[in-house]
Amino acid sequence: MNDVQLIRDAFVLKESAGAIELVERLLHGDQPASPAVERLLDSVLARLDRLGSPARDALFALSLRGEALRALGRLPESIQAFQEVAERDREAIAAWVGLGWCHKRTGRLDLAIDCLRQALIASPDEPLLHYNLACYLSLSGDVAAAVEHLTRAISREGSYRTLTREERDFDPIRSDPRFLELTQLAV
User: Fold this and answer.
1) Exposed, middle or buried: residue 30 (CB in 10 Å: 0-12, 13-18, 19+)?
2) CA atoms within 13 A on the CB side of 82
3) Which pLDDT tens digits describe the chain residue by residue (187 residues)?
């Protein structure tokens, strides 16, 4: 591969990352993307497809592809991209979180829980993984495990306590005394 292609690929990756970051600020929860956002994401995918082979197959490009597909609601394809990233880099936290997010929204809460448990093997101290796992365990009705993982998330990053107030995934356990004790402590 020549220097011009390497520079072009680096520019495409940087531009694509910027577009994904912009989209994340424009999207609200599970709401579908607007037509303008869809066009932007489609252009990101098209640019990623034109990358040279080494860049196209790199973990960063695959992660960007997963994020773009997820934002477009193309969850099975997003799962495939995130799965490849997670298999190649067991500590790719964003890929694991993306996998869990997609599995939850495809009705496979069991797979969302399993993938975050796998992620915690490689990154046992990552509060984001504990927090998301707590959300999914709450939805599954496993109060004790949900509180355990939420406790771990909050002990590592206190701002997660504040997030629980608005997080609808905790609605099933919101009145449980263990949840109340954990979330109502002074910040």
Assistant:
1) exposed
2) 26
3) 588 888 899 999 999 999 999 998 888 777 888 999 999 999 999 999 999 888 888 999 999 999 999 999 999 999 999 999 999 999 999 999 999 999 999 999 999 999 999 999 999 999 999 999 999 999 999 999 999 999 999 999 999 999 999 999 999 999 999 999 998 864 3
CA distances from 69 to 18, 128, 135 (A): 15, 21, 23
The burial class, CB within 10 Å (0-12 / 13-18 / 19+), for 104 is: buried
Q: At how many degrees (to 10) do helices 35-49 and 59-71 cross?
A: 160
CA atoms within 13 A on the CB side of 57: 4
Both tokens of 55, joined, read 């860049």
DSSP symbol at 51: S
Residue type, 87: E
Give, as one character, the DSSP assignment of residue 158.
T
pTM, two decimal places: 0.91
Instruction: Return the structure tokens found at 106.
Output: 């495809």
> What is the spatial distance between Cα 130 and Cα 36, in angstroms, rounded to a whole number?
34
Nearest to 154 by CA among 112, 185, 118, 113: 185
Query: Residue 115: enclosing H or E segment and its boundaries?
Result: helix 109-122
